[in-house]
Amino acid sequence: MNRLFMTLGITVLGTTLSMTSHADRMVVLKGNAVLLAADDFLSVFPDSPNSVLSCSFNPAAGAFVPGASAGGIQIPLPGATDVKVIGTHAYVATSNFENSAAVTGYVKYDISACVPTGPFTPFRAHANLGSGELVIPCVEVDGSEYNVVMNQRGNSMNWEVQFVNTGCY
Q1: For the chain, which end, N or C, has fewer CB atoms within 10 Å of the first or last residue's CB respectively?
Q2: Per-residue confidence band for 8, with pLDDT thresholds at 50, 70 and 90
């Protein structure tokens, strides 16, 4: 009987930890677009600050359509926690609490208008695994450009922001 309660306790703890570990922002690069699921939004940005997305979002149809969008797109999506891209479809995982119970699901978007066939030339990030440093150049946040320096946490492949410098180099 004790083994049953211990097994059940470990299962509940593991489930709780796995649900809380999805709070990190999830980012996917596809074609010339960057997709981000966080803070109850799905955001789509061009892959570089000087680029323009080849799509816009039609809220009435709930779909991405051809057309230029310079500043990026933000779609309200309560509980957005993760985004995965398979082919020309984005799957956004959602997680909400209703009546003290977790309700999970996903929303599927056709993003073919946002990922035209063309060469993908991202800014080059620099990683030095020996020193545990990752430099991500030219990240745009609310219209401002930043260079981000991250340090490796222990021997894992988890990284944390150490330094943010304004401007792009």
Answers
A1: N
A2: very low
What's the rounded Cα separation, in Å, for the pair 33 and 45?
6
The 10s digit of each residue's pLDDT in 91-145 is 999 888 777 777 888 999 999 888 765 544 456 777 777 888 888 877 777 877 7
CB count, 10 Å around CB of 138?
Answer: 18
State the burial class of residue 45 (Cβ atoms within 10 Å of its Cβ: 0-12, 13-18, 19+): buried
Residues 37, 81: contact at Cβ < 8 Å? yes
C-alpha 115/C-alpha 151 separation (Å) is: 31
Extract long-range pairs of 79-82: CB within 8 Å, 24+ residues apart: 79/40, 80/37, 80/38, 80/39, 80/40, 80/41, 80/42, 81/22, 81/23, 81/26, 81/37, 81/38, 82/22, 82/26, 82/37
Q: Which residues are paired to 76 by β-bridges?
A: 41
Contact by Cβ (8 Å): 97, 90: no
